[in-house]
Write a structure and sequence with these properties.
Number of helices: 11
InterPro entries: CBASS_pafABC_assoc_protein, PafC-like, PafC_HTH, WCX_dom, WYL_dom
CATH class of the largest domain: Mainly Alpha
Protein name: Transcriptional regulator-like protein
Domain WCX: 246-316
Number of domains: 4
Order of helices and strands: HHEHHEEHHHEEEEEEHEEHEHH
Strand content: 15-25%
CATH superfamily of the largest domain: Winged helix-like DNA-binding domain superfamily/Winged helix DNA-binding domain
CATH architecture of the largest domain: Orthogonal Bundle
Domain WYL: 149-215
Radius of gyration: 30 Å
Domain PafC HTH: 14-127
Largest sheet: 5 strands, antiparallel
């Protein structure tokens, strides 16, 4: 890798690594020329000056005089005059060590982590250093089917195609599919498998807890070169303008909908609110509305309102009809005295 390539890297991870190395580097070389430091660190002078400007606002909580990293400039030379304690060995309190162990264990349990061995090594070092201060051993389990996640992760690593039996909530049906798995990931506390679905001829994201059965096939996975993984940073469901728009009038007890689902429009009122949201299809929306309380009314589309009314009417009629045995036995309808 050339120096120009290194100096052009502006990712947050790269810059954080540079900043963490920069302070001890300068502490060991007081009064070093900026040009010499930039050459030793493999960055441009402009990039080093930008990093030094950022260090000026870094430091300890409080972020006032005596808390922030400070430095002195003499022409083109720089000296760290206050390092905010960065040169002292890190000493964690029991609570800090426990929080770090829990975070690392969650990271180790997260599907798709590339360098799990590095996480495990860090855990061993922290737990060894903390000793008895951590108290009881820490065990972390993510809210997912760990056995199925491990099975799917192994399938991804083996590069084999899978036959899965999957329950689709949108269609309210269970379908068998042959997929070419790409990766396992966790979004919002749930585990998902992203794969090329041969049935749909496109990339699909499958919730692990809705996969009822998995069979590893002998043939290798064949993810087309043009297949692009989904950007799931904003969540699994990404509403688009081509999806059906549903408008509901909701009461106070159903306002949780606006926090749980991505809504396109929310119009608060004195009592009822108007809420509009995109759905995958009207079949899912019908089951969703029927599962809500009485303080929900479908405003649009008319087709959904008709479907909900018909389903609710059919349910009421089923409850109103006496069972066949009662209709055949007149004594069953006679009240006791």
């Amino acid at each position: 890798m050339t120096r120009s390539t290194r100096s052009g890297s502006r990712t947050s991870a790269d810059r954080l690594a540079r900043l963490l190395n920069l302070v001890p580097f300068l502490l060991a070389r007081p009064g070093i020329e900026i040009a010499e430091a930039a050459g030793d660190l493999g960055v441009t002078e402009r990039q080093l000056r930008e990093d030094l400007e950022l260090l000026w606002v870094c430091g300890l909580p409080g972020y006032g005089p005596g808390d922030l990293i400070d430095m002195a400039f003499d022409g083109d030379r720089v000296t760290i005059t206050y390092d905010a304690g960065i040169d002292r060995p890190l000493r964690l309190t029991p609570d800090e060590a426990l929080a770090l162990v829990v975070a690392l264990r969650m990271l180790a349990e997260t599907p798709g982590v590339a360098n799990r061995e590095a996480v495990e090594r860090a855990l061993v070092k922290i737990e060894s250093a903390a000793g008895d201060r951590l108290g009881a051993p820490v065990a972390v389990r993510l809210p997912a089917d760990n056995r199925r996640v491990a099975e799917l992760r192994a399938a991804v690593e083996s590069g084999r195609a899978l036959r899965i039996t999957y329950y689709s909530v949108a269609r309210d049906e269970t379908i068998e599919r042959v997929v070419d798995p790409l990766r396992i990931l966790v979004v919002g506390g749930r585990a998902y498998m992203e794969a090329w679905c041969r049935r749909a001829e496109g990339m699909r994201v499958f919730r692990v807890d809705r996969i009822d059965a998995v069979t590893r096939l002998a043939e290798p996975a064949r993810v087309p070169s043009q297949a692009v993984p989904h950007d799931l940073t904003g969540g699994v469901f990404r509403p688009t303008a081509d999806l059906p728009l549903v408008t509901l009038r909701i009461g106070r007890s159903e306002r949780w909908i606006t926090e749980y689902y991505p809504c396109e429009r929310v119009e608060p009122g004195d009592g009822e609110w108007l809420v509009s949201l995109r759905v995958t299809d009207l079949g899912w929306a019908r089951r969703f509305v029927l599962g809500l309380g009485p303080e929900v009314t479908v405003v649009a589309p008319a087709e959904l309102a008709t479907q909900v009314h018909a389903a609710a009417t059919a349910a009421l009629e089923a409850y109103a009809m006496p069972p066949p045995s009662a209709a055949a036995d007149p004594a069953a309808s006679t009240s006791s005295r």
